[in-house]
């Protein structure tokens, strides 16, 4: 039996977040297998979250799927690589669980894809694939207009132009620092449930390692008796993120004996949809404009 909420989550992944339709079907099957294994209401909980966390949870699901596919050494898969999934579930769960159950998990997920997902999601998948093809064709046909030169070089004036109004901006463009948008200077960090990390600890950690590098820091807003599970850090310079990640897509740190995961923030903005796009409605999980994203994973 396939429920409408499962279709809603799949639509969110492939339409709103523009994730790969085939890969997203495996992610849905993964969540359904978890629910059948005793981890209840995973899909319902995810639909109540901001898009940014749904996207992060989908990435963690891929980590679990890789573990099930035996892409991790059998000796010690890192159980701390799925902090949001651990926070979402009401039972203890880690990568060791998926590694030890990789055979029944692989068989169960494959069966759900074939018998459930392909039947209940194929129309959305086909529409998303067609939309992606149309979008790719449109983007490939976009032509960047050539730069228009004023012909000053032909007049022997070169790039140095002085019209008597002081220093020319045309003459020395290197003097103006290119402004990098905040999203391109932002890092997304997550924390483990049960091990609260506070704003002052985050600021102290990065300040000690990289100096006065933080422009602003937005911790998840929670009630007084709850802990923040994620934060967004806007740095003064995008190069700070490159130094922190050191060429990796995701980095793990320990702040006062508590695990912290960091990755570059990738905002999921809506792309123009073609006429073949699946219909979607606004969701309570849509990323709000406010830098503070309310969330409860309990």
UniProtKB/TrEMBL annotation:
It comes from the Eukaryota. It comes from Vitis vinifera (Grape). This is Uncharacterized protein. Residues 271-298 are annotated as: Disordered. Residues 272-290 have a biased composition (Low complexity). PANTHER family: OS07G0274300 PROTEIN.
